[in-house]
What we know:
Blueprint: H1 3-24, H2 48-54, H3 59-72, E1 77-79, H4 80-90, H5 97-107, E2 114-116, H6 117-129, H7 132-143, E3 151-152, H8 153-167, H9 179-191, E4 198-199, H10 201-209, H11 212-223
Antiparallel strand pairs: 1-2, 3-4
Helix pairs in contact: 1-3, 1-8, 1-11, 4-5, 5-7, 5-8, 7-10, 8-9
Amino acid sequence: MSGCSKRCKLGFVKFAQTVFKLITGTLSKDKIEDELEMTMVCHRPEGLEQLEAQTNFTKRELQVLYRGFKNECPSGAVNEETFKQIYAQFFPHGDASTYAHYLFNAFDTTQTGSVKFEDFVTALSTLLRGTVHEKLRWTFNLYDINKDGYINKEEMMDIVKAIYDMMGKYTYPVLKEDTPRQHVDVFFQKMDKNKDGIVTLDEFLESCQEDDNIMRSLQLFQNVM
Length: 225
């Protein structure tokens, strides 16, 4: 696998790995070594200058990302099935299909059934180099499965369970079957400030910014590039 291809795939996967560390309490403060080596580029996407203005990437970085994206997705877009296959390669001991489905929907902001390079790089820019507020808004959108502007307990449980399923039975330390529910109970109680059974964006932002573990997880996104 080329360096560019690894860069494209790792961009999707880093987010899932970090969220899992946050949920299980295994998040480390150690800096992640940069695995995304820059290589010579021969591809150039249309509208490069516009993407440079809209994202936090340089022109060269956008060229590298585009080359990796086109190497893996010659059609210029990723469908959900391909997205699931990418995740399955990185999590061979678990079932990544459900989490990949939720994450794909978060990347597919126009709900077209495919993720174009522009969708990918815009989301990646937010996750890797966005402000704390931008990263939290993106994460809220991931958990808001039905896109009604709120997170209910069932939605949070669906995402958390999907992450546990993806990591598989070889997770260390070994997790009990009811561990996802226990984590969701704790998180939801903390986030649902007014106890109305739903978490609003404001409640989510406030709760996350009060939590040092979540802030450390967001810091990792700035270290991987």
